[in-house]
Write a structure and sequence with these properties.
Elements (H helix, E strand, L loop, with lengths): L1 H8 L2 H12 L18 H29 L7 H9 L1 H6 L1 H6 L3 H19 L11 H30 L6 H31 L15 H22 L7 H13 L1
Helix pairs in contact: 2-3, 3-7, 7-8, 7-9, 8-9, 9-10, 10-11
Length: about 260
């Protein structure tokens, strides 16, 4: 939990040090073989520690890469940090436009990383004796709050994908369909995780986002869009006129669903 607080609230230099130390082999967040053998019921706690460390490591890597893409890393003075904190709200408000300014390839890479981060978060759901332990629930509190923004970012990117669907080629459309399928499963797990967290008293119930699930109907509509693209490509290859209105109508239908 100390490392988590340092990464969340400490100087950015901590992030750099943890990131490069871990990549050099220092065992800070690399706890893949961690095991507490002092108690008979230690397996549940050991599993949580391993999952928690993997989440922190994935989150750290995403933050470092995101910062590198946005601007070169540099240390800041205390006054600079205070000014930076004052602009955090504005930066969060502009995150949507940040995603929309990305190229499709960047959107795809970013979403893959966010999905991997969400996967790490979902793996932190405690089991057995760890579910009722005070230290575990306290450790979960901060990362559960962080997951809210993670969910909002993923949802925003999915909407951008739909907006750009008619511009995607067939291969990109198939990738988009696979992304929505994977995301549908993750959102189901996330909804279940949040339900457990509320029952366990982790955070305020009103703070949790309302999960918009990806239903089979949505997936079917996206699948139809992919089929329409394949059909249109085949018609062009055969020298026949391309039928776009139906594809546009399907995109609008997905917008309504999402």
């Amino acid at each position: 939990m100390l490392i988590q607080r340092l990464l969340a609230e400490g100087d950015p230099a901590y992030e750099q040090e943890f990131f490069f130390s871990t990549r050099r082999g220092t065992r800070i967040l690399n706890l893949s073989d961690f095991r507490d053998a002092t108690r008979n019921d230690s397996w549940d706690f050991s599993a949580f520690v391993r999952a928690y460390a993997l989440y922190l490591d994935e989150r750290l890597e995403y933050k470092i890469q995101d910062r590198r893409e946005a601007k070169p890393y540099k240390t800041t003075s205390t006054k600079d940090e205070e000014r930076e904190e004052e602009t955090n709200d504005k930066e969060n408000a502009s995150k949507t436009s940040h995603f929309r300014d990305m190229k499709t390839e960047q959107i795809f890479t970013t979403l893959q990383h966010l999905q991997q981060l969400l996967e790490r978060f979902l793996a932190c759901r405690p089991t057995g004796a760890a579910k009722c332990h005070r230290v575990v629930t306290v450790a979960l509190y901060q990362i559960v709050e962080e997951s809210f923004q993670l969910y909002y970012d993923i949802t925003e990117i999915l909407k951008i994908y739909i907006d750009r669907f008619t511009e995607l080629d067939i291969a990109e459309s198939i990738n988009a369909y696979d992304i929505f399928c994977r995301q549908g499963k993750q959102l189901d797990e996330l909804d279940n995780f949040y339900s457990w967290c509320k029952t366990a008293g982790i955070g305020q119930t009103s703070a949790y986002p309302e999960i918009e699930k990806i239903t089979q109907k949505k997936l079917h509509l996206i699948d139809e869009l992919v089929r329409d693209k394949k059909s249109a490509a085949q018609q062009i290859e055969d020298g026949l006129p391309k039928a776009e209105p139906e594809a546009v109508e399907n995109v609008n239908a997905v917008h309504v669903e999402i």
